[in-house]
Amino acid sequence: MNKLPFINFGFSGFAGRFSGTVIQIFQDRLELLALELREAKIHLVQALLMACMAVVFSLLGLLLLVLAGLHILPPEWRLYGLVLAAGVSILAGVVVFIALCRHLEQKPLAFDQSLAELKKDTQCFSTRN
């Protein structure tokens, strides 16, 4: 009769340790996820601020350049100069947009490390010993 409660206690002790380990792993993964989310948010804010500053300064520079160029041209050539400046501005905008798309494609996924750790965990617990 003494062996049955001992076996039951041993199983409950194992279950408690196992559940504690699983909870600790889950907590670690959530902390990693929160850290990656904060890093992704910082990266997004930095990218947006830099993009906004680039747009503002580029537009200001283009405006001043177009006005200076139009002021230098003779009156009969000003319309052609304006069309040329508009075409160059549109071309520059397309080139910058393509560069931005390439830059964003090269960045890893926001939660890449969390996904890798979760895959490791599933492989660890699904392996039959």
Structural class: mainly alpha
Uncertain runs are 1-7
What general outline do the C-alpha atoms trace?
Answer: rod-shaped
Q: Work out the strand percent.
A: under 5%
Q: What are the secondary-structure elements, in order, as H or E? A: HHH
Describe this structure in words.
Mean pLDDT is 80; it is low at 1-7. This protein starts with a helix and ends with a helix. The chain has one domain (35-126). Helix content is 88%, strand content 0%. The protein is built from 3 helices and no strands. It is rod-shaped, with a radius of gyration of 31 Å. The protein has helices at residues 3-72, 78-106, 112-126. It has 129 residues and is an all-alpha fold.
Features:
single chain, mainly alpha, 3 helices, 88% helix, 129 residues
Write the layout of secondary structure elements.
Layout: H1 3-72, H2 78-106, H3 112-126
Brief digest:
By secondary structure, the chain is mainly α. It contains three helices and no strands.
